[in-house]
Design a protein that fits this description.
371 residues, alpha/beta, TIM Barrel, 8-stranded parallel sheet, 3-stranded antiparallel sheet, 37% helix, binds flavin mononucleotide
């Protein structure tokens, strides 16, 4: 089995442990979380896909002020779906009736469409190259050969995400350094780019085995991993590192709300769903009133990121009112087993459990063990 200490992934990334804190888009990443994980020998990550290009350099500086260890910045290579590159007045008016009742419920006026749309990947990537993070991870596609060459020239390790064998092979053919095999158990968006996300729902268990047997590029397992037991399982399947998302999202250092964290530690976390209802792209989160009421109306949703923009106009008021029924509660399927509320405790427990020769009994997840 691959070593938990030194292997191809730790060597390329220059980290002590093959543990990656998954990046979070949507403002849920923090410099503190990335730096905490980096300082404990893992790879911290920061999801930058919502940042305007001029914010990317300052975020890298914030992380560097907290750690001198390697970290990754993350972007979405595809920044819109068909018809979503800007919010045209007719798209806006057609979508409005779907959202209007919720705006009324929260006492909000009809919003005014933005002058500028979602930040452009083409502009973000230039800012990222300029910021020169030790690693660049990405989802929803493959950067152009020019960008990958620039990364190599600047010693930026590239990490791409695959949800199928074909995507992993495409990443390898493009010369990407490391591949994240992301199972459908994972929280957040399903980052498929060769087929529809709904047709790319393989779980981590088969995906890691199938991909690791077919590519020479080192494989990182993601989806459904939150502790040493899951990490060992991923290594047994052929992974050389793990990327953990939901367990870090639940920690106090992440950028999410306390209400979301409380849901992740509650029985509600047993019920996740894959839904397009919040952004227009398929993503996994805890079921709530929004996912249920939107389910029969998915075909009426505007494309990504227009749907996301409408939801973002509601979000601050919903959060201020403590309304977890109307906001996204991103979560992977492993959430009911989460035990740690701090990234330091999570990392330390992972590392000490991995050090031990064998894990005896499955850990207890009785409520009083959550620390
Ligand atoms: C709220 C949330 C946001 C995420 N945003 C991104 C992102 O912007 N880019 C990315 O590469 N992965 C993103 N992910 C995926 C994680 O980095 C990670 O691969 C995944 O959560 C692993 O599965 P797990 O949740 O079962 O641990 C996100 C995950 C969550 C839960």
């Amino acid at each position: 089995m691959n070593s938990f200490r030194v292997n191809e992934v730790t060597r390329r990334l220059g980290v002590d442990h093959p543990i990656i804190q998954g990046p979070f888009g949507g403002g849920l990443s923090t410099a503190k979380l990335a730096a905490t994980v980096a300082n404990l020998g893992g790879l911290g990550s920061y999801g930058a896909h919502m940042l305007p290009p001029e914010r990317i350099g300052p975020v890298a500086d914030e992380i560097r002020a907290l750690t001198d260890k390697p970290f990754a910045l993350n972007l979405w290579v595809s920044d819109h779906d068909e018809g979503g590159d800007r919010i045209e007045p007719d798209t806006f008016e057609r979508a409005w009736p779907l959202f209007a009742p919720y705006f009324r419920e929260l006492g909000l006026d009809k919003p005014v469409p933005p002058e500028r749309g979602h930040p452009r990947y083409d502009e973000q990537i230039d800012a990222l190259l300029e910021a020169r993070p030790p690693a660049f991870s990405f989802v929803f596609g493959i950067p152009s050969p020019r960008i990958l060459t620039e990364c190599r020239r600047r010693d930026i390790v590239t990490i791409g995400a695959a949800t199928s064998i074909a995507e992993a092979q495409a990443l390898e053919d493009a010369g990407v350094d490391l591949i994240v095999a992301t199972g459908a158990e994972a929280g957040g968006h399903r980052p498929s780019f060769l087929a529809r996300a709904e047709e790319s729902l393989m779980g981590t268990l088969p995906l890691v085995q199938l991909v690791a047997a077919r590519v020479r590029t080192p494989v990182i397992a993601a989806g459904g991993i939150a502790d040493a037991r899951g990490t060992r399982a991923a290594f047994a399947l052929g992974a050389q590192a793990v990327q953990i998302g939901t367990a870090f999202l639940a920690c106090e250092e992440s950028g999410t709300t306390d209400a979301h964290r409380d849901v992740l530690f509650s029985d509600r976390a047993q019920h996740t769903t894959l839904t397009r209802a919040f952004t227009g792209r398929l993503a996994r989160g805890v079921r709530n009133r929004w996912t249920e009421e939107m389910a029969p109306r998915i075909a009426q949703l505007p494309p990504f990121p227009t749907a996301s923009w409408f939801v973002s106009q509601l979000r601050p008021a919903a959060i201020a009112a403590g309304r977890t029924d109307l906001v996204s509660l991103w979560s992977g399927q492993i959430a009911p087993n989460l035990r740690h509320r701090s990234a330091t405790a999570l990392m330390q427990s992972l590392l000490s459990d991995l050090e031990r020769e064998a894990l005896d009994a499955p850990p207890s997840h009785a409520k009083e063990t959550i620390a």
